[in-house]
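Supplementary notes for students who missed Thursday's class. We covered one full example, reproduced here. Read the sequence, then the structure, then the short commentary at the end.
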Amino acid sequence: GTIYGWDVTGTPATDFPIVTDSVRAILCADVLGDERREIIGQKRSGEIIIWDASGKVQLTFGIDPTDTLIQVAQYQGQSILLCRQSAWIVEDSPHELDGWWALHQNLYRIRSLSGAFPEATGDETLLIQSQTYAYPNPAREGKVTLRFTVGSVESVEIEVFTLSGHFLRRWKISHPRPRLPQEIHWDVRGVTSGVYFAKVYATSGTKTESKILKIGILN
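Structure (token representation):
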């Protein structure tokens, strides 16, 4: 869709109109704590985008494509984005996360609302299924982001296979931070168009939980 913006004199704002892929919902609120209202939208792929009043992108992060942005609220003095299946806090200050986990460093300021949903709070849950997915899916721009959230685990391993079962590549992350969304970015520009499977394993001692992600690539 297309988002249009004007200033108080009726003049089109600097970076408007914004052309974006199938926006589901548009909200307007001060979520960055700068005493200015931002525009919050969601793509069909699940990606949430926050623009400032001039139309410049300030934050982007992905959620499960089946989840839907509903409203903006306040939680302990911080902005919270409420979705049907999850809740996300926009932090005033960055977390101490390793930068390679973040999409354009935006996850420094985004975290799930711990304690809001039973599946995400118990240490016995190794891999939080609803917060483990790939986006955009299908991928059309040469990159797929594999996002996962885990409990207290020793490692996470992701293996990618072709539709016929041939191994393609692997990532291993030791001691990932519990209950914080983490991401692996897969450059698929040289990958043949088709359907692929990524198996995500979370391991703690002798216990393992896994999820298989079906990923479409269109190059």
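Commentary. The radius of gyration is 18 Å. The chain has two domains: 2-113, 119-217. If anything here is unclear, bring it to office hours.
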